[in-house]
Amino acid sequence: MPLTLTSPVFAEGETIPTKYARDGENLMPPLKWTGIPGGTQSFVLIVEDPDAPKGIFRHCAVYNIPADREGLPESIDTSRDNALSYAINDFGNAHYDGPEPPIGDDPHHYHFRLAALDVPRLAIPAKAGAQQIWHEARKHVIEEAELVGIYQR
After folding, report:
1. In which domain of life is the source organism classified (predicted)?
2. pLDDT, tens digit, 9 for 90 and up, residues 87-102
3. Long-range contacts of 101-105 (CB under 8 A, 24+ apart)
4. How many whole angstroms separate alpha carbon 117 and alpha carbon 41?
5. Is the pTM higher than 0.70?
6. What CATH number has the domain bearing residue 34?
7. Which terminus of the chain is more solvent-facing, meaning fewer CB atoms within 10 Å of its CB: N or C?
8. How many domains does the chain contain in total?
9. Range(s) of the domain holding residue 101
10. What are phi and psi of 56, to 5 degrees?
11. Across the strands, what pairs with 102?
């Protein structure tokens, strides 16, 4: 069974609820995955908007997710129990920042990309950017899954 990424709050190609956008509550949506490939030692998750006016805009990167996880609960990035690592997103924050496309733009597509890695941890310097995390993760990918949601203001 292939690695699959889903959310209970939006399906592939559907609208991301406002609650998970920057002009809503700015909560990270809950995510679940199945079909974890053999040899997985950790995961990395990145959220990107390729429709941004200046090119790909990265809203979040979570790395060193333990291999025994099968998802992330809503707003995991603000949880007091959170021991996960976050890269600096393109807003300059080390947490999830939801959709915030320019008002009047066509709908933007938000790609939630999960990668199963063959290493237990990425050796990344503190304050690394989301793009740097994804670049390093690509060297260790066993399998990837993607969930795309849309948002428009």
Report:
1. Bacteria
2. 999 999 999 999 999 9
3. 101/49, 101/51, 101/52, 101/151, 101/152, 101/153, 102/53, 102/153, 103/153, 104/153, 105/51, 105/53, 105/152, 105/153
4. 6
5. yes
6. 3.90.280.10
7. N
8. 1
9. 4-151
10. -55, 130
11. none
